[in-house]
């Protein structure tokens, strides 16, 4: 290469390099411009977002700093700009504050729209001019308006004090930052009633202020209070305070009476489930919020009978041994001599001899000396007292004889009297239950074969249309069946279930609500399946009463429980060919047989062959319950089922009670009372229902016995229908009888036309005659289908019963009445307006399980629907078959559970009537019992608040009492109506029956009733209550000896709930302590079962007679009070229990 070429190449390389450098620099400049442009865009975006955020804060106005003038300053509060109120404690750091000052302040817009001033930050200007006009001086401060965001912050603290007023409860909390704050718990979310010493977490809404490191500025509002730590566990009661107001669990967990489940009286050794929170007040570190009994402590075995008092020296007075007296029968007599000696060296003066029992009821009569004779008993002298013993009462009883001496001392002796022998008292053999031919070994496996050919037929009726929503099957899990049915004992079954389904141990809360109730319903269904096995038969044959049906004989099937109902399934299988199962249905139930239908070929060809038979219940009701508990929390606000606070809504009808009249404050009109006899408590309940300020939270009408709850419910229905024009009302009841009563009352008030309301019934209720025929024109069969899928023609039976009703026909009704289960059929429909029903009223809500109660709730408008629960948590609750399900929550009604939660719970310090009247009204005026009977159950179970309306002077009930005073002991109060006869019988059990009876009590009741009949008392005026079926049978057998057509009603407590009689006689049966724990576990008997006791003693209008073993019953604190109540009025017959102390003579 020559020189020139080399020069040119070098020049080209340099040129290329320079050009590349130039391009790189240009590229850097372009990239720099792009970066600058992006930064500007990002900055503009951030500024735009900031402006948008500030605009949003400004629009919300939730937290703002502003300037304003103090226009009023009083000792307790001040006002800014004539608009915004602030508490005077916000000004404590300012000494120069006065009206006319200009200040900067921080304000917060609350949920209800009210502006709350939370902080006075500084004084900007000290005063107005001398004429009181605001200064026109301009300043930068006048333009203050700065908006802030908010966030939640949690602060730990300890409750230091609680101040309750009629309208609020102020809790003072010492926080972890050494600052005390006061919180009105009626305005925040809280799920427990706080107490001094509780360790809590306070959730606050605070100002978001970036001038602070943690961005937290002023506290704007208080949102919630929760415990710092909770403990849910099972423990043993290790101490019960002598006063009965509390005690200890596991020695270091304190509980108070308010934490105990309703009617539970704790004993040392009880096993309890508890929910506790941390508390530093006492020496314990925990305080119980709730204590629920899971297992009663082992009660002591029978104490030996008191020995006969032989020779006892008292100040030298010796009473010779008094032998026990035996009389073969009532009416017989025997003489008794008692010798007393003065072995001292001084003279004792005997003032008088006393037999404490009223003369006409006592079995002792002193012949000589006279009871009022007074004489000196010299040293070494003796005196013989001659008595005549009359046999008045069957069984073993005891009386006392008392010698009263000068100086105020006395000597007493106990005389035991046995009239008749237990073996001779029962002269009528009870009917024997037929032995079941059911054999579980291999029997059920026949019907459970997976490869069996099932031939179905004989359905009760064809569906008249289709439904728009299909409810799931919710089949019982096989694992749970095995755990329950495969266990050796019920206790083993419960342990296995809880171990495999641990959620059942936990307190009910939103996250486990549906899951827990699904499992509880599965357990209940397993128990029903087990109970249904009493109907199963092996190698039986059918009869053919007519060409339509086959019949199967089952003794007393109409009275057997659980009940067979129309539509239940019958399955039959040949003992020798178990590959084919014929499945039919029950069509009729008669006293001792059922009529069934199968598939046509089997039905027609059956010719007396033997078959094994199994009955199965229809599952429709269980499916409705499962569907409801799975849907409720999606349908309604969580506060409906788990309330924490009241968020008041504008009244649906703005009414107030003025001088007994209900005034519509909007129109100024006086609204009509449909029942002019309502008392002031009932009127308050109606006012609160119409206002409905807490809706959709349930409103509770708490109706103790005889207080007119049903009349209040009826008035509520009429007032809602009249004054809430858009209303569509579901009226639900726990039973057909309760629904019938409401229907009859609506008919009798004559406000509605016949087509305005309808009573929904099931076919089985018609078949069992549960619906009186005169109600049929107002009833429709529960056969619901979509409008357009059936004929619009509504068919009627001869009695007026509506059939084949579609949704269009039913939707037109203003009021629809039925049991919760019957109204559950509406869950399968899509009504044109999904919020068609506006109000749900559940009568006897305390007798409905929670899944039953939530069925109608799922049909309501989710935001504005109103729920009204009427019932009494102190009476019997839902009847649950499964003890496992009952022990873990299924036996607690929604009404009961709500009344034990804040803000529903009782608090007389805070509320004049005991409850927040936006949520609960307690009826207190009793129309049933005479004052002396009412006082007993009012004092025991209703805080002594029930008020009698029956006069002691001229009422029918008092006149009725006068009729039979001649056969009762004279009492201190002549108008006293509660008597206790203490007799000691023997509780017995037949070999083939698990139930108990006491022949002595049965005979005494028979004798007492014969005396009543002789005085002209009708059998319809008498009710006899006893907790055991066997005792019911014994008493009925005795009463048959009088007149088969004049037998008073004899039944269990459950059968008498909701009823009343002029005379109620209780037979308590138990005479042995060894069975009390078993009674309590199975909710039998009266001891330690206060709901049963309450129902039993509150049925009487004029007279309550109790037969029982007083020494045994006195082991129960409430029974102790019953016995004392009778004894204080000289209405107790027998030997007073030691627990009640000595009697005054």
TrEMBL record:
Location of the Helicase MOV-10 helical domain: 472-533
Family statement: Belongs to the DNA2/NAM7 helicase family. SDE3 subfamily.
InterPro entries per the UniProt record, alphabetical: DNA2/NAM7-like_C, DNA2/NAM7_AAA_11, MOV-10-like_beta-barrel, Mov-10_helical, P-loop_NTPase, SF1_C_Upf1
Protein name per its UniProtKB record: RNA helicase
Keywords noted in UniProt: ATP-binding, Cytoplasm, Helicase, Hydrolase, Nucleotide-binding, RNA-mediated gene silencing
Gene Ontology molecular function terms on file: ATP binding; hydrolase activity; RNA helicase activity
Pfam families: AAA_11, AAA_12, MOV-10_beta-barrel, Mov-10_helical
Subcellular locations according to the entry: Cytoplasm
Catalytic activity field: ATP + H2O = ADP + phosphate + H(+)
Domain DNA2/NAM7 helicase-like C-terminal: 907-1110
Domain Helicase MOV-10-like beta-barrel: 535-615
Enzyme Commission no: 3.6.4.13
Broad EC category: hydrolase
Organism the protein comes from: Phlebotomus papatasi (Sandfly)
A GO BP annotation: regulatory ncRNA-mediated gene silencing
UniProt keyword DNA damage present: no
DNA2/NAM7 helicase helicase domain sequence ranges: 678-778, 794-882
GO CC, one annotated term: cytoplasm
């Amino acid at each position: 290469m020559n020189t020139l070429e080399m020069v040119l190449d070098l020049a080209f390389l340099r040129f290329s390099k320079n050009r590349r450098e130039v391009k790189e620099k240009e590229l850097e400049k372009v990239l720099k411009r792009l970066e600058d442009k992006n930064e500007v865009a990002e900055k503009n975006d951030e500024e735009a977002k900031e402006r948008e955020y500030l605009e949003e804060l400004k629009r919300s106005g939730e937290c703002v700093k502003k300037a304003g003038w103090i226009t009023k300053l009083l000792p307790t509060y001040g006002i800014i700009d004539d608009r915004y109120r602030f508490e005077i404690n916000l000004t404590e750091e300012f000494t120069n504050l006065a009206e006319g000052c200009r200040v900067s302040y921080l304000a917060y817009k609350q949920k209800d729209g009210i502006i709350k001033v939370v902080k006075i930050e500084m004084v900007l200007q000290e005063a107005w001019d001398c004429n009181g006009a605001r200064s026109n001086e301009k300043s930068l401060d006048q333009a203050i308006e700065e908006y802030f965001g908010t966030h939640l912050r949690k602060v730990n603290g300890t409750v230091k004090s609680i101040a309750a007023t009629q309208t609020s409860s102020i809790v003072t909390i010492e926080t972890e930052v050494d600052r005390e704050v006061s919180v009105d718990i009626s305005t925040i979310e809280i799920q427990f009633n706080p107490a001094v010493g509780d360790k809590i977490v306070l959730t606050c809404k605070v100002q978001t202020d970036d001038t602070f490191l943690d961005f937290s500025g002023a506290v704007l509002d208080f949102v919630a209070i929760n415990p710092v730590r909770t403990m849910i566990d099972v423990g043993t009661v290790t101490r019960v305070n002598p006063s009965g107001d509390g005690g200890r669990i596991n020695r270091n967990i304190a509980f108070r009476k308010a934490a105990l489940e309703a009617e539970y009286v704790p004993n040392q050794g009880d096993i309890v489930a508890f929910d506790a929170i941390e508390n530093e007040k006492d020496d314990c570190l925990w305080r119980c919020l709730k204590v629920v009994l899971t297992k009663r402590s082992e009660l002591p075995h029978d104490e030996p009978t008191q020995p006969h008092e032989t020779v006892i020296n008292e100040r030298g007075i010796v009473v010779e041994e008094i032998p026990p007296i035996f009389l073969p029968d009532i009416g017989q007599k025997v003489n008794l001599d008692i010798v007393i000696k003065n072995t001292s060296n001084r003279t004792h003066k005997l003032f008088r001899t006393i037999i404490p029992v009223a003369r006409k009821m006592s079995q002792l009569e002193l012949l000589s000396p006279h009871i009022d004779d007074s004489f000196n008993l010299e040293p070494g002298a003796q005196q013989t007292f001659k008595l005549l013993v009359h046999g008045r009462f069957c069984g073993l009883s005891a009386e006392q004889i008392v010698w009263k001496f000068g100086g105020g001392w006395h000597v007493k002796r106990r005389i035991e009297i046995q009239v008749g022998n237990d073996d001779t008292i029962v002269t009528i053999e009870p009917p024997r239950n037929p032995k079941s031919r059911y054999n579980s070994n291999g029997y059920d496996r026949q019907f459970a074969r997976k490869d069996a050919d099932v031939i179905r037929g004989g359905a009760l009726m064809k569906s008249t249309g289709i439904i728009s929503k299909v409810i799931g099957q919710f089949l019982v899990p096989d694992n749970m069946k095995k755990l329950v049915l495969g266990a050796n004992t019920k206790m083993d079954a419960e342990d296995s279930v809880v171990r495999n389904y641990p959620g059942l141990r936990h307190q009910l809360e939103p996250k486990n609500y549906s899951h827990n109730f699904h499992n509880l319903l599965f357990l209940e269904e397993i128990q029903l399946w087990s109970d249904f096995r009493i109907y199963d038969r092996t190698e039986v044959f059918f009869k053919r009463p007519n060409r339509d049906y086959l019949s199967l004989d089952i003794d007393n099937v109409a009275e057997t429980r659980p009940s067979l109902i129309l539509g239940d399934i019958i399955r039959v299988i040949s003992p020798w060919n178990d590959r084919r199962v014929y499945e039919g249905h029950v069509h009729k139930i008669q006293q001792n047989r059922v009529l069934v239908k199968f598939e046509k070929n089997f039905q027609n060809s059956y010719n007396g062959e033997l078959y094994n038979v199994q009955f199965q219940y229809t599952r429709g009701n269980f499916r409705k319950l499962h569907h409801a508990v799975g849907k409720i929390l999606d349908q309604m606000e969580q506060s409906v089922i788990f309330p924490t606070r009241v968020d008041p809504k504008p009244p649906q009808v703005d009414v107030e009670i003025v001088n007994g009249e209900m005034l519509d404050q909007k129109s100024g009109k006086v609204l009509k009372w449909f029942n002019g006899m309502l008392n002031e408590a009932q009127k308050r309940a109606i006012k609160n229902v119409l206002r409905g300020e807490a809706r959709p939270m349930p409103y509770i009408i708490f109706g103790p016995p005889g207080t007119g709850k049903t009349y209040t419910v009826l008035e509520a229905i009429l007032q809602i229908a009249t004054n809430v024009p858009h209303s569509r009302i579901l009226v639900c009841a726990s039973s057909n009888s309760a629904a019938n009563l409401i229907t009859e009352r609506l008919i009798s008030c004559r406000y509605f036309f016949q087509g305005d309301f309808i009573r929904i019934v099931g076919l089985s209720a018609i078949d069992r005659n549960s619906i009186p025929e005169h109600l049929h024109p107002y009833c429709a069969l529960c056969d619901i289908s979509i409008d357009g899928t059936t004929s619009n023609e509504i068919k009627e039976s001869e009695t007026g019963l509506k059939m084949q009703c579609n949704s269009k026909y039913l939707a037109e009704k203003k009021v629809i009445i039925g049991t919760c289960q019957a109204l559950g059929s509406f869950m399968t429909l899509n009504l044109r307006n999904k919020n068609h029903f506006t109000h749900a009223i559940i009568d006897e809500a305390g007798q409905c399980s929670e899944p039953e109660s939530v069925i109608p709730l799922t049909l309501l408008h989710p935001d504005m629907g109103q729920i009204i629960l009427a019932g009494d948590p102190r009476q019997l609750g839902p009847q649950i078959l499964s003890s496992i399900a009952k022990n873990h929550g299924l036996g607690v009604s929604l009404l009961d559970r709500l009344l034990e939660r804040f803000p529903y719970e009782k608090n007389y310090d805070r509320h004049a009537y005991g409850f927040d009247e936006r949520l609960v009204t307690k009826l207190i005026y009793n129309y049933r019992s005479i004052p002396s009977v009412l006082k007993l159950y009012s004092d025991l179970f209703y805080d002594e608040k029930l008020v009698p309306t029956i006069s002691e002077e001229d009422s029918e009930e008092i006149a009725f009492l006068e009729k039979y005073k001649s056969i009762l002991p004279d009492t201190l109060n002549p108008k006293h109506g509660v008597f206790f006869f203490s007799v000691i019988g023997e509780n017995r059990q037949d070999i083939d029956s698990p139930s108990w009876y006491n022949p002595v009590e049965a005979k005494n009741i028979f004798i007492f009733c014969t005396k009543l009949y002789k005085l002209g008392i009708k059998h319809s005026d008498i009710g006899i209550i006893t907790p055991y079926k066997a005792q019911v049978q014994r008493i009925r057998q005795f009463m048959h000896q009088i007149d088969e057509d004049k037998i008073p009603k004899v039944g269990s407590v459950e059968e008498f709930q909701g009823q009343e009689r002029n005379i109620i006689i209780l037979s308590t049966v138990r005479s042995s302590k060894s069975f009390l724990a078993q009674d309590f576990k199975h909710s039998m008997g009266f001891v330690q079962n206060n709901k049963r006791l309450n129902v039993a003693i509150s049925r009487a209008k004029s007279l309550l007679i109790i037969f029982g073993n007083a020494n045994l019953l006195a082991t129960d604190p409430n029974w102790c009070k019953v016995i004392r109540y009778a004894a204080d009025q000289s209405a107790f017959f027998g030997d007073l229990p030691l627990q009640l102390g000595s009697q005054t003579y």
